[in-house]
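Internal tracking record. Fields below are filled automatically when a chain is submitted to the structure queue. Please do not edit lines marked as system-generated. If the sequence contains nonstandard residues, flag them in the REMARKS field before resubmitting.
Queue: standard
Priority: normal
Entity type: single polypeptide chain
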Amino acid sequence: MTLAASGHREIFGVDFSGAKAACNKIWVSRAEVADTRLCISDCYPLSELSLSKMSREDCLLTLLDLILSSKHSIFGMDFPFGIPVQLMKGLSWDEFIRDFPKLYSNEYEFRDINRQLSGNVELKRLTDKEVKAPFCVYNLRLYRQTYFGIRDIIRPLVISDAASILPMQPLRNDVPWLMEICPASTLKKEGLYNPYKGKGSKEKANREHILDHLEKKAVDMSTGIRDKALQNADGDALDSIIAAYSVFRAKNVLGHQNTLCELYIREGFTFM
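SYSTEM-GENERATED OUTPUT FOLLOWS
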């Protein structure tokens, strides 16, 4: 089943965050596929969905509600959907997700336990090695994303059977699909992995170069959306666009997810 044949034409690229001020850091790009092009129709931080300041918990509930209300969409999510198989204590992916709050009571315990189990070695999943992901899932710069992404987004969807989490679950047309993506890995594959996060002129020039490349290759967006991505120095707006583009790139893989190796079904798989 391909993206075009499935009827799942709307794509959401999500630059995720587990920070306390997550609503300012989580950016969402909304897009549709038109023939061979990806058309970005909106790009915004999650904070724009509420008039009041939201806590991290409220923010993640807002994102979960967006997913649940978008049944005919595909979400490219920028956080790991699993951990290295060596650290899973023999559990299947489904068992691990369901037991997640019992295994780790908070994000710090998630990092500490996995560091202890790995002997302080930063183990990477098979997919992390293959896509050249910058960090392991419990790295200091990523562990909050992994923890809150699995606990507050993936687990509720698994418990309620309200989505297809790929490639661990079969495709269903009556629910949204979630795909793990990694903007850094996509940029590496495109030969665009240069520093682009920061207020300096060099970083801004690199954001502009990335946008030029995406627009030339397959992405259409308004001047306003392009300016948002260019002016957002943290790179979160651009990452959400790259997330949507990653889903668009991976559309032909969707019909073959059942042929992926068993380790991906245990640990998760990064689409790009």
